[in-house]
Amino acid sequence: MAVMDSGEIPLLAMLRDRASYLSNRQKVIAENVANADTPKFAPHDLKPFSFQARSQAPGLAPAGVQAMTQPSHMQGSHARGPSGAKAVTIHDSETTLDGNSVVLEEEMMKMTDSRMNYDAAISFYQKSVDLLRMAIRKPGAG
């Protein structure tokens, strides 16, 4: 019997990438908070994560993307740009006299949003693995 790597399952690979992206985003936001008093510091953030861009990445079949087969189906939003782990500088209008433009309230809101999304991604990943375990269990096994 061949053992399948969880990286070969598109859903699990995408959820793992999402969790990794959110972990990296939390690190960038924490750096922004740590530098809230540093003169001339501009906050950074990561480009938005995109499942569509991830599904078109090399090594992942486009089969992970659901097609709209009926006119009544809802069409997904593809307005976000491709995901990336490179931090980009955020230009904000709230800059202090020393040139620092970190707004702690905004950073805390981003951190909370990132944490909730991370928890959701981990939860979806764990539930998917649990479903796979249940599917491969022998009938009648407890």
Description:
There is one protein chain. Helix 1 packs antiparallel against helix 3 (104-136). This protein has one domain. 11% of the residues are buried. The chain has 142 residues and is mostly helical. The chain is built from 3 helices and 2 strands. Residues 58-70 and 73-84 have low confidence and may be disordered. It has a two-stranded antiparallel sheet.
Strand order across the largest sheet: 1-2
Number of helices: 3
Helix content: 40-55%
Multimeric status of the protein: single chain
Shape verdict: elongated
Low-confidence stretches: 58-70, 73-84
Percent strand: under 5%
Q: How many β strands by DSSP?
A: 2
Main β-sheet, in a few words?
2 strands, antiparallel
Compute the gyration radius: what is it?
20 Å
What labels describe this entry?
142 residues, mainly alpha, two-stranded antiparallel ribbon, 3 helices, 44% helix, elongated
Present the secondary structure layout.
Layout: H1 10-34, E1 44-46, H2 51-55, E2 87-89, H3 104-136
Summarize the model shown.
With 142 residues, this protein is mainly alpha-helical. Helix content is 44%, strand content 4%.
